[in-house]
Amino acid sequence: MQKRSRTLHSNNSRTLFYKLFFTAAMLFIATAATSTPAGADIYKYVDEDGVLHLTNVPSIPNAKYVLILKEKRIHFNSDIDVNKYDHLITKAANKYKIDQALIKAVIKAESNFNHQAVSPVGAQGLMQLMPATAYALQVEDVFHPENNIEGGVRYLRYLLNTYRGDLQLALAAYNAGETAVAKYNNSVPPFRETQNYIKRVLSYYDDFRKR
After folding, report:
1. What is the per-residue pLDDT for 65?
2. Could you tell me if 62 and 94 lie in one domain?
3. What is the pLDDT of residue 70?
């Protein structure tokens, strides 16, 4: 879904900082208020020029990141219908030659099967597509389950092809962006969120395969 991190800049103004913090907090609360949250930890840091940065992917070495908003983690045993979109998942899986269990694992980790989910950084729908990615994939209605799954699975297939079937790298790029993977010599970036994301998807993948 391209790089999901979004960085906000300001001067070293306390007033503007609180405006940015309030905006991020409202986004987080709005997401947490849904029955199936989909979000990410939000960090801040101030650079040498006094510029404030807010991001969900701490990617700058030696930067002193401070966690200001923590994602409400989703759990596999939540009371949801994980089979609700099976007909759409099967269709996309057959079209793009991807295991249905993997698609369901990504959806579980991304949105917990909430087709209206919106993350604090703007990712949307079942497979949490960023607006720019949805546009590039020509997804007309990102909240339409079939459109979102079609776009998300097509993007996942592209990443799997790009990284020659390396699932961990494909998932890392899905979460943190291809640029982040390339920055670390085509390896999983040392971001806690991304590493935890890969572990969650692989755990869900294993569970869905056993079902």
Report:
1. 73
2. no
3. 58
Please state whether 147 falls in left (phi above 0), alpha (psi between -120 and 50) or beta: alpha
pLDDT in tens, 25-62: 444 434 333 333 334 567 777 877 777 777 766 767 77
Domain total in the chain = 2
Closest CA to 4 of 146, 160, 127: 127
Give the integer Cα–Cα distance in Å for 24 and 18.
10
Q: Catalytic one among 48, 71, 110, 193?
A: 110
Write down the H helix ranges in the chain.
14-32, 86-96, 100-111, 131-136, 145-162, 167-176, 178-183, 192-210
159 has pLDDT over 60: yes
Helix residue spans in 59-129 (DSSP H): 86-96, 100-111
Q: Are residues 112 and 196 in the same domain?
A: yes
110 catalytic residue (yes or no): yes
Residue recorded with tokens 């040498």: 48
